[in-house]
Amino acid sequence: MTWGRMPSCAPVANRRWPGESGTRPKLATCATMLFSLASAFGQQSSLAPGGTHASQIKSLGVFFFWLLGIIFLIVIAIAVASIFQRGQSTQDEAAQRRLKTAIAGASVLTILILFGLVVVSVGVGKEISAPGGRGNELVVEVTGNQWWWFVRYLNDDPTRIVVTANELHIPVGRPVLIRGLSNDVIHSFWVPGLQGKRDLIPSRVTTQWIETNEPGRYRGQCAEFCGLQHAHMALWTVAEPESQFQQWIGTQLRPGAAPSDDLQQRGQEVFLSHACVLCHSIQGTTANGQVGPDLTHFGSRLSIAAGTLPNNKGNLAGWIADPQNIKPGTRMATVPLDPTDMQPLLEYLESLQ
Amino acid sequence: MSEPRVLDVSGLLPYRISNKSPLWLGQLLMCVIEGSLLCLLIATYFYVRLSVDVWPPPGVRLPSVMLPTVALIPLLASCIGSYLASEAAKRDDRRGMLVGMISNLVLGGIFLALRGIEWRGLNFTWSSDIHGSIVWTILFLHTYDMVADLLFTLVLIIIVASGHYGQKQRLGVHVDTVAWYFLVLIWLPLYGVLYWGPRALGAK
Amino acid sequence: MTALEELRAEPQQAEELARAWKNRPGPLGWISVTTHQELGMRYIVTAFIFLLLGGIEALMMRIQLASAENTFLNPARYNQIFTVHGTTMMFLFAVPVMEGMGVYLVPLMIGTRNVAFPRLNAFGYWIYLAGGLLLYAAAFTNTMPDAGWFAYSPLSGPQFSPGKGVDVWAQMITFTEISALCVAVELIVTILRLRAPGMTLNRLPMFCWAMLVQSFMIIFAMPAVMIASTIFLLNDRTIGTHFVNPAEGGDPLLYQHVFWFFGHPEVYIIFIPALGMASSIIEAFSRRPVIGYPALVLSLVANGFIAFGLWVHHMFATGLPQIGEAYFTAASMMIAVTSGVQIFCWLATLWSGRLQPTAGLHFIFGFLFIFVMGGLTGVMLASIPLDLQAHDTFFVVAHFHYVLIGGTLFPLFGAFHYWFPKFTGRMIDQKLGKITFWLLFIGFNCTFFPMHILGLHGMPRRVYTYVPEMGWGPANLLATIGAFIIAAGGICFIANVLKSRRFGTKADPNPWDAGTLEWSTSSPAQAYGFIHLPVVASRYPLWDQEKSKDIVTGLRNDRREVLVTTVLDAEPDHRLVLPGNSIWPFLTAVGFSIGLYYSVFAFSGYWIATALGMIGIIGWFWPRQPLDIRP
């Protein structure tokens, strides 16, 4: 892991995300200054783009903002000025004519401006939806579930297909095609720092291109109301240089790490002997559940419960002990555990790098 | 200040049994509402057609064209009954109204009976698949409207036959025909879509 | 001679008319009412009660979102509340309140005594009330819908929304839809056929034009929501059709297409009447005819047409073919042209008028500010790239509240302050009115402006909470504070209405010196509207003194008689005897509602509704004495 320090054990609801720092320079244009009400914005902001597409959209947005903002000010200025225009004769023919000419002129100007905006907007629209493939694209399948993301890296070689959850790693400088699917209701895949959103619709496949030249972490969140825990359905996108990305793929292809000490050994036994295996799988063990996220490399992930909590032992303990408390309505079951089993289980799961 | 000018309308009729009555316009608007409903269902039919590969879906028997086409004859003929009834209503001809409305009712009834026979021949239901859902919905809504309109015609027949009626009821007879014309007219595109559609749209 | 003098001069006629237009006494009389003012006011008051309920729901949501990971509401409750909030505001407040204003004002503005179909009007009101009761009965028995106000399938389907909440939602739509259609039909016929002699279409007041356009839009748009909610969604849920459930081969996008084919025009159905109100208020308080009447009318009509061509801009994120996208972007921006023309006309009118700084005009300035900003963010959303970022975020929440509250509620409040003397016979307190305005204006911007920023910074809509590290806390807190300022404005308004109704100074027939016909009769208007129907020779009969005194005579006063005129030129055609009090609309509505209520549980409810409705309608139309209408 090169993108940051891995978390150590922390108290429940330790909300510091690993490697949290302003790695990306903020484009401090006037518009964003105006919009930056709170300094903490940024990880999931369309105004702090890292992706090629999101940057284009932002430039378009800034252009719209200034143009429409000026129009707004002019209209309001005229309205306010009219308050001080007292007692003009209503019968003055010449004044009437002038006003009607002004209305006609403003209407024509509106049409011209809007025509320009349509042209610019359709142009940018073409660019951001154009296939970005140059023969080197990465194809990732993202499947929405209530309320987590199933992620699969497609490959012609079936042994090189990587499966993960709630986390997307992408190489910098390479176009990525997201194939969107859904297992239940409509979700929407949206990483504002990279690209606009695209719905994930059951019985259909939607596609979207993302690409970035800036390494960093971009948070995304489901944007189409999908039920009870729509609010806690986030994912992290990690953009890293090609070599690190290949290293990550290499790690992900390996089966789950074998326990390296007695505590972890005990933890694995706890996992395999409890209901965990009904939903989760860990490659290299007998756990083969297909309902919940694959946990083969759980320890390497940034978050628990689809972006709800940072991944560390304290938070994990809280999550396993009472998932309904952290994410009411989640499909994750509360599995009764002997108190002495918890620590080994945490050790084992966090060791799954 | 000059005296107000006065427009005396006491000489105008206190009712009018014609297309100039507000009720006629109201009935026309009701037909437009029903028409937009059915037009949207036709649009839905074509949209649904595009979303599947085979039309009609495998296993569905092509609807027979023969019976629905024959049924158009009593249907179109029933409009003559409607027309006679509304003309008779305008000149307060009780016998004419009864003859018109009863022939309308009988011919409409024959049409519905033929539709019933044809409907029983369908080998799918509303819950078979999306094709079944849309075909049944269109048939059901149109039939529902027709039955409702014929029931009102029946009520009007009873009222007129009893002799217990005035201008308002005569206007009712006249306006009732607007609804019937509409239902007959809207059936023509629906007929085309439901019976010729599967043949014309079979290949994608 | 003013109307009051006229009233004094002809007491016998007034008495005769009052007798013919009197409601029956007692509770039975109360449910038999068919006069437009009484029913219009019932619409308005009922809609306001729903506005209060929707407002309380909004406050609950704002409290929940005031800080990160707040636990004031649990997710299930939050989802129910935003669903019911949206549904209430769209279907039980915004559309009905506009209809109520139309039903109340249109006959007075065009110089007639009632709407063309008084019993249909009563039926529409009762059906609306029944629909509202259905939703809130469900809410209080804990079967609230929770799939959002547009209830996308498959989330709203049988698999993911078990229970009866969504069924209630779907059928509630049917009620409000039937009610809206009734009002639309009767208003179109009223406006086209019952105008005072001489009021050619070219002299129709702007508000009536707006109601005419809105009514036609209802006629073409509302059937679509019936298809989406009742035929697709409810039948999929109750009898197993397969329209929109992907698990059974249906297509969820079909639902979205049909829903938004209604849903987009719905927004215009709500704010077009408000644009008409704005025109009326601007004219009156600028002391001059509106500049560019033909342009305003054409823009309204064009708005009505264009509104049907841009539903797909709600679906950009579903991924559509390129060509379609360009078309829908262009069409969506077209709306800005027609809206822009109207704003330019109003600005010109204000510019050249002698402005009266009333509370009513304050609301119009607030409307201009907020509506223009909402319109401009709408232009942003019409651009597909920007929409893909802003769609389904708080930016959109901000946008549509700017358009709907700014475009609808502000003119509506302006209209209450403007027409209050006509409604009640007393003047509304201007000072309290201005305080109401400032509270609403400041509170509104404080609540909704930060939402633009939240949306751009990634906050999706319909989330019951958010994680603290997103930095969305301060802006959300500001929005919550704003919501309470709005609530204070609401309380101020209610206090003002209650106070002014009792203690306000008595109003003259035309306290604002306005130009349209409703100000020519007494304040409050009598049930029969006018002692003599007016004859009109200009757009502003009251400003045109010479021509305002012409009257119609020869209508019988001992029964509810009105004059039918021709569609374009308003030339007298025939007299029409309108029905009087009747209990049948109420009975029909009750029978019909019982059936529709039951249809939430089983399809056979439709048979019950049909049978009971049929009995009601036969009773309604059964011949009554005297059978013959004598001249």
Write a structural description.
By secondary structure, chain A is of the alpha+beta class. Chain A has 9 helices and 12 strands. Chain A has a 5-stranded mixed beta sheet. In chain A, strands 4-10-9 form a 3-stranded mixed beta sheet, with helices on one face. In chain A, β2 (148-153) and β3 form a beta hairpin. In chain A, α5 (262-273) packs across α9 and α7 crosses α9. Chain A is elongated and about 95 Å long. Chain B is mainly α and 204 residues long. The radius of gyration of chain B is 21 Å and the shape is elongated. In chain B, α2 (66-90) packs antiparallel against α3 (94-120), α2 (66-90) packs antiparallel against α5 and α3 (94-120) packs antiparallel against α4 (130-162). The mean pLDDT of chain B is 90. Chain B is built from 5 helices and 1 strand; from the N terminus they run βααααα. Chain C is built from 18 helices and 3 strands. Chain C has a two-stranded antiparallel sheet. In chain C, α6 packs antiparallel against α7 (165-193), α11 packs antiparallel against α12 and α14 runs antiparallel to α15 (430-456). Chain C starts with a helix and ends in a 10-residue tail after the last helix. In chain C, 67% of the residues are buried. The mean pLDDT of chain C is 92. At the B-C interface, β1, α1, α4 and α5 of B face α7, α8, α9, β1 and β2 of C. β1 (6-8) of chain B pairs parallel with β1 (551-553) of chain C, so a sheet runs across the interface.
Any key phrases for this structure?
heterotrimer, B: about 200 residues, Four Helix Bundle (Hemerythrin (Met), subunit A), 5 helices, C: about 625 residues, mainly alpha, 18 helices, 3 strands
Architecture blueprint of SSEs:
The complex is a heterotrimer of chains A (353), B (204) and C (631).
Chain A: H1 30-35, H2 52-83, H3 93-129, E1 138-145, E2 148-153, E3 162-165, E4 167-171, E5 176-182, E6 187-189, E7 198-200, E8 206-210, E9 216-221, E10 234-240, H4 242-253, H5 262-273, H6 276-279, E11 303-304, E12 309-310, H7 313-321, H8 323-326, H9 339-351
Parallel strand pairs in A: 1-5, 4-10
Antiparallel strand pairs in A: 1-2, 2-3, 5-8, 6-7, 9-10, 11-12
Helix pairs in contact in A: 2-3, 5-9, 7-9
Chain B: E1 6-8, H1 22-51, H2 66-90, H3 94-120, H4 130-162, H5 167-200
Chain C: H1 3-9, H2 11-20, H3 26-30, H4 36-65, H5 75-110, H6 118-140, H7 165-193, H8 206-238, H9 252-286, H10 293-306, H11 322-352, H12 359-382, H13 384-390, H14 394-424, H15 430-456, H16 473-503, E1 551-553, E2 561-565, E3 572-577, H17 584-599, H18 605-621
Helix pairs in contact in C: 4-5, 4-6, 4-16, 5-6, 5-7, 5-9, 6-7, 6-17, 7-8, 8-9, 8-10, 9-11, 9-12, 9-14, 10-11, 11-12, 12-14, 12-15, 14-15, 15-16, 17-18
